[in-house]
Predict the 3D structure of the following.
Amino acid sequence: MLKPVYLFQGETLLPQQISLDSLLNHTETLKSAPCKSAELLNQTVFTSTLADEPLKDIGAERMVRKTSERQARWLIATGVRSWRRYISAPQSSKAGLFIGLGTVDCDEEDNPELVAEPTAECLSAAMLEERRPLICLALLNSSATSHIAQLAGITGENMSFSPLQSAGFNALCEGYFAIAEGRIKYALCGGGSQKVTPWSLLAYESIWAKQDNFWLTEAAAFVVASDEARLNERVANGVLRHIQRASLQNNDESLTQKVNHLMQSAWIEARSIVKVILVGASPKQCEVTLRVLGDDLSAQAVILDRYVGTTMAASAAIACNSALFYLQAYKEGVVIAITFGDHAEFGTFIIEANND
């Protein structure tokens, strides 16, 4: 029998030092600006970018602070701060780390090169010819997870996933099953977005070029999971009751079937629905999903990307933290989250208000 998996709200690192709670409360709005690199391609992409994280507040050594990539520093700072909020002592092999990494642009210079024509081919040629050798996108290496594990004292299971939207959701899935099956007692699950640079725009043009006024946000987020309902005198806001990965066929009927199947879940039956969170959905996917949900549930829907933009591998943890925020005010009920990946990935999870 699977153990219950309790969830504790971790940190969500967003640009402009804005808190996730203030966005969901509609007291603040995240600002964005046109991306110069996208303008070189005659495309309109808006971005919200993060400041650097010095890592001094978490006690990282000077070597870590000076040699890690900026994108890795977002992950390290957010992950360690989230963990220490609830767990202070090392947990040896009882704790695990599950993280969505995506890719990293090792070049810290974000200024785009001038190109002869506004095409991806010209920008790509300019980057390859004028940048130093080996400067391009690469998998964000495991040094980020190693630094988090060392600073947090996590020595159990350690898994990294890539790329993009599905990475963060896979991390949450694996953390859930590791606790539910009794392999570990605590898990730190989360991920980080893509750093916005010319290279990342070129690499993922097939995604953002399909949408008008695409909004890409640099972010990192984590959630802490445990088989215990109370950590460091803090009570879990929610219990992760259901999580499932699937893939969509390239048609509306497949999405309709998946959403209908979700709404027939035993964990939703006879329970009040607090919110339905959609993350990573294209405009068409939003339209189909809301139509299937019907008028009453559509009124409870939160299209998260309208609040924070596209956050890639951070999106699942941001959705999870959003669900826990909404459940703070409820003693019963569930939040349903539906996540969409970039290559027909489809994920769902249900979080119930914790009454233990």
The first helix runs from residue 20 to 24.
